[in-house]
Design brief:
Endonuclease Iii, domain 2; single chain; 12 helices; mainly alpha; Endonuclease III, domain 1; disordered N terminus; globular; 216 residues; 0% strand; 2 domains
Length: 216
């Protein structure tokens, strides 16, 4: 079967971080040569496709990775397994005991209901165009562009995504370039096509390394 070159999922041989694309990106913008020469290449951050990963990304919205991971571990310890059925059986009190905020409880339940009712079938996303994936995911309450971007990159290994809503990525661009406004940052990121996911990985890598923070 020939893979659709525009589908969300890259093949294993063309994961986001690979030697060919690194060379190509470094030629597009010296910014990435600077990062590479200082910190080398980023890890190829990847997560399994599916419900659990999407739940984790929801928990990571607007909080640190450390906080989100602590909340995820609490939830994982409380449940036999993180499934849509189990999420929907949790009361508000149980959600609070797992350190899940009221708002994120609503989001996790909305996602769970969509899967149970077959309004969303996560297994189908890998064969869709990026725009189709975005349309499917953002139709669910609590899933916006940032959550979709992270799922596209980390879970589907989509190679040309730029998460303009990510504070670490945007702040790194502002630190290292003259682009300060949203429209200028997007214009700059256009130069990095079709390697914007790799560019984002480099920017995260710089952000974490400079601050002596661990990744996941």
């Amino acid at each position: 079967m020939t893979q659709n070159p525009n589908s969300a999922t890259s093949t294993a041989s063309s994961s986001i971080v690979n030697p060919h694309d690194i060379v190509a990106l470094l030629k597009l913008d010296s910014l990435f040569s600077l990062i590479f020469n200082t910190y080398r290449a980023p890890p190829n951050w990847i997560r399994p496709q599916g419900f659990v990963s999407l739940c984790r990304i929801i928990l990571e919205q607007q909080v640190s990775l450390a906080s989100a991971n602590a909340h995820y571990l609490k939830l994982n310890e409380y449940l036999e397994a993180i499934t849509p059925d189990h999420i929907l059986k949790l009361s508000d009190t149980e959600m609070r005991q797992c350190q899940i905020s009221r708002q994120k409880s609503v989001y996790l339940r909305a996602l769970s209901s969509a899967l149970i009712e077959k309004r969303l079938i996560l297994e189908e996303l890998s064969g869709m165009y990026h725009t189709e994936v975005r349309s499917k995911l953002t139709a669910i309450k609590g899933i916006g562009d940032w959550t979709t971007d992270i799922y596209l990159m980390f879970c589907l290994q989509s190679k040309d995504i730029f998460p303009i809503g990510d504070i670490a990525v945007v702040n790194t661009v502002k630190e290292l370039t003259d682009a300060k406004k949203r429209e200028d940052i997007l214009l700059l990121a256009d130069k990095w096509k079709p390697y914007r996911s790799l560019a984002s990985y480099f920017l995260w890598h710089y952000y974490l390394k400079k601050r002596n923070r661990l990744s996941e």
